[in-house]
Amino acid sequence: KYLLGFAGLLKNRGLVRVSIGAAFRTMTQAGMLTFLPVYLAYELGYSPLVTGICLTLLQVAGFVAGPVAGHLSDKMGRRRIVMSSMVLTGVTIFGMALAGRSVVFILFVALVGFFLYAMRPVLQAWAVECTPRHLAGSGIGLQFGVTAVGASVSPLLFGMIADQYDIYTGFLFLAGTIILANFLIFFMPDSKQQGAQPVRVG
Hints:
By secondary structure, the protein is mainly alpha-helical. Helices cover 82% and strands 0% of the residues.
């Protein structure tokens, strides 16, 4: 019965769309964490200390964003928060690539961290709401499995793009992954309009 129920999750369009959207978000995150230090050290000439500060700001902003985004999504709906965060992440990544060696660049790094990490808890909650209660853990496991695929291929694709063109184009690729994720989420109904109805198997 469990295997039949898990197989049924693959036919759950809401869960699959949220999971693929989360995978594109994770592609952005993995690419940022892999190549942002390279960009800071070799392209902008930042010292190891300043590079470390920028990466710390990225994580601290994400630490602040998680509870805030979770609370707002409970009040306003998952779809609105996820789409807003994705749009703003793409905009800030594009701005970061254009900011160059300036104080504004560090501000953009913090904003990317805030909006990028704000989506993670909301997408997880959304996945649970798309899944029957008795398979909630399996639904999250499916989402994590799909996002792991995104995380594994993103650094490779970024590196290939950076070698073929330049690292700035690589960051534009990351902005593009968020746009694709936003496109998928756009067709999802708001979590307030859907519920995870238990599915009887057998």
